[in-house]
Automatic annotation (TrEMBL):
<keyword id="KW-0694">RNA-binding</keyword>
<feature type="domain" description="Ribosomal protein eL8/eL30/eS12/Gadd45">
    <location>
        <begin position="21"/>
        <end position="109"/>
    </location>
</feature>
<dbReference type="InterPro" id="IPR029064">
    <property type="entry name" value="Ribosomal_eL30-like_sf"/>
</dbReference>
<comment type="function">
    <text>Common component of the spliceosome and rRNA processing machinery.</text>
</comment>
<comment type="similarity">
    <text>Belongs to the eukaryotic ribosomal protein eL8 family.</text>
</comment>
<protein>
    <recommendedName>
        <fullName>Ribosomal protein eL8/eL30/eS12/Gadd45 domain-containing protein</fullName>
    </recommendedName>
</protein>
<dbReference type="Pfam" id="PF01248">
    <property type="entry name" value="Ribosomal_L7Ae"/>
</dbReference>
<dbReference type="GO" id="GO:0005681">
    <property type="term" value="C:spliceosomal complex"/>
</dbReference>
<dbReference type="GO" id="GO:0003723">
    <property type="term" value="F:RNA binding"/>
</dbReference>
<dbReference type="InterPro" id="IPR004037">
    <property type="entry name" value="Ribosomal_eL8-like_CS"/>
</dbReference>
<keyword id="KW-0539">Nucleus</keyword>
<dbReference type="InterPro" id="IPR004038">
    <property type="entry name" value="Ribosomal_eL8/eL30/eS12/Gad45"/>
</dbReference>
<dbReference type="InterPro" id="IPR002415">
    <property type="entry name" value="H/ACA_rnp_Nhp2-like"/>
</dbReference>
<dbReference type="GO" id="GO:0042254">
    <property type="term" value="P:ribosome biogenesis"/>
</dbReference>
<dbReference type="GO" id="GO:0005730">
    <property type="term" value="C:nucleolus"/>
</dbReference>
<keyword id="KW-0508">mRNA splicing</keyword>
<keyword id="KW-0687">Ribonucleoprotein</keyword>
Length: 126
């Protein structure tokens, strides 16, 4: 596994990572998931991102570091997870994924779980 970059802050702990991967997997089934740094940037600019997850072992990490700034401008919670391979698997693809976002859907069955996760992610930023 690649080295976690110290610029990747905040980094999710094991329990939070497991919850994040579970919600990402479910949101993929509900078509609420966007994968890749470019698509995440689009969801943030359009104002439809619920939260953003990034891989701390992306190489080079600089290809992701515009996203935390954009997230803070748009008041969208974000967090880093340790592995891009695990993030890709939870997104339902066989490739590595360095960034993904869950999009807004008011009628989604995941709404309460997403809100709870957003609160947990915001606690890490404090």
């Amino acid at each position: 596994m690649a080295e976690v970059n110290p610029k990747a802050f905040p980094l999710a702990n094991e329990g939070l990572t497991k919850t994040i991967f579970d919600i990402i997997h479910k949101s993929s089934n509900y078509k609420q998931l966007k994968k890749g740094a470019n698509e995440v940037t689009k969801t943030l600019n359009r104002g439809i991102a619920e939260f953003v997850i990034m891989a701390a072992d992306a190489d080079p990490i600089e290809i992701l570091l515009h996203l935390p700034i954009l997230c803070e401008d748009k008041n969208v919670p974000y967090v880093f997870v340790r592995s891009k391979i695990a993030l890709g698997r939870s997104c339902g693809v066989s490739r590595c994924v360095i960034a993904c976002s869950v999009t807004v859907n008011e009628n989604s069955q995941l709404k309460s779980a997403i809100t709870t996760l957003q609160d947990e992610m915001e606690k890490l930023l404090l």
